[in-house]
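Notebook entry, structure prediction.
Reason for the run: the old model in the group folder had no record of what sequence produced it. Starting over properly, with the input documented here first.
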Amino acid sequence: MIICLVMGSISDVQAQKKLQNSPGGYHGELDFPISWNRYYSYVEWTQLMKDIAKKYPQLASVESIGKSRMGRDQYLITITNKKTGTHDTKTAMWVDGAVHGNEVNGITCSLYLMWYLLTRFDYDPYVYELVNNSTFYILPGLNVDANASFVEYPNTGNNPREPYRPEDNDGDGLYDEDQTEDVDGDGELSSMYIEDPKGSLMLSEDGRRFVSVSEENYPGMRFKRIGSEGFDNDGDGRINEDDIGGPDPNRNYPYGWNMASGNPYPMSEDCTRNAYEFHLAHPNIFATFHYHNTGRLIMFQVPQPVKSTRPQQTQAAGQYAFRQGRGMTAAERLEQMRKTNKYAQYFDRQVPREFSHDMAVQTNIVTMGARILKNYRPTMGGLSGQTAASTYNMLGAYSYLIELWGSPTYDIDVDNDGRGSQDEYMDWIDIEMTGEGWINPHKFDHPDLGEIWIGGSAKKHMSRTPPDRYIQSEADRNAKFVMYCASQFPKVEVSDIDVTSLGDDLYWVDVTVKNDQTYPTASDRSKKLKLYDQDVLRFKASKNISLIKLDAKLPIQDPFTSSGGFGGFGGGFGRGGSSAMKAGTGDEIKLWVNGKDKQVYRYLVKKSGGKGWIEMDLSSVRGGKTSKKIEL
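New structure, fully documented this time:
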């Protein structure tokens, strides 16, 4: 018996030019040098995209997916090896950053992924495989108007967040006229204070912070906080009361939208609508990453829980865990799992059976995410008009919202109590940050308020966005997580064809199909939405071999000629897959292949004459194509 196997993954069109196997060797970092210890302006980072695409034209293309409200292009870079197929024919990963204007470390993480994939392509076999077989659509900055303002002008760490939709917050007929402004011209925004004998604040002992008064009759200088830096531009006696307007862009998407924060209507903003329309036009997008800050969270989209009609069916903290809990609470189950894997994750959530595989897949993926990102905590995502919620629930793509950075508690927490105190924070600034990153209180003559004090707070890139020395390490780990997910895209295979003679020219032909990857060929959600055609297993044979169609309802296990049914494959994390041999009911069988899944199909054939052949073809929209042939 001769076997010929043709795999479905795209074959190499060329050898890697500069293969580097040493982890201490050069991997193309200086082929296109970029400094990762600073934040780039809109003009700068969009030029980086254009320049690197020119450097690697066979791998990258840049296009504008539309313009923002203020006329800026939203540039997207598409990365794949064009010699192994067009981008839209490959399973794709979408990555975007900074849907909120101030969350520009998402831009950096997106650019770093772009740079890593392109510069390492000729050196790194892992990257080479990903770029040959997958597509990466990367939109570094989504909310480009507010992104540009945040980087290029003085701002607090929290502002601006929204798209620039003009609003009259104070009802005076003017729009966005009283914004936060850099009063003292130091390039940073802080808080303003006035001296007040009844004030509740005083200067700290070192004179660097405003803190609560130490005693009721404190005799020293007292202060009252006025608010963030700004002027009374419209002469109404108020400051900063009409700041930049617009809805929360991450509440502007259609799934779960509500008027409270997503106004005036779903997809009202150019930046969100352009991105969503790109998704609609590219159904090959299989998974998505959306970079936010802050908090070091892996927020992942999962199916909605079972709607219980009886209170006792509702799962809550302290109740017995679903399925594998074996009489333990969720907390006890997780504690047991972490004895062998400190990154293990368990989520006490009961979902409908038809969505159980999605829950299992996402749990496995974010478990690996916790390992790669180290100090990030996986948690289930929200639903109120958010990007990831719409991506999963409306488009069927596995979705992850990453909350980057946050307070560097690990670096700050010297006494190991799990939190960073103000004193520990100041020590961190003095030691690890070498004194950089703090605005000391100082006097200023304000044109509207007279003599005031300004300061006592961290500078812009100290809280929600990491300071320079932390940028690359954060971006590198996040790039590795995105690439890991892409490496787990489905890949179908006809792994075995076993033939057993029954006599009288009759044969059992047992065909094993499998997918060793974590992701299935279609998410449970996409099946529910009927977005993809099913995978197809096709039986082909020479003219002297005929297929006898089996009835799926009849037993096909012969205890004298088989091993007893191939039970226990599990079908993908123990849920939703096949647990027994299935009947070969015809020359074309439609199926779904789950993650970490193996299925066996038994055919009955009759051969006449001399040698013949059987070929099995497996085709999947997302898992590729594979073929295996045997001669009898």
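Summary: The mean pLDDT is 91.
The old model has been moved to the deprecated folder.
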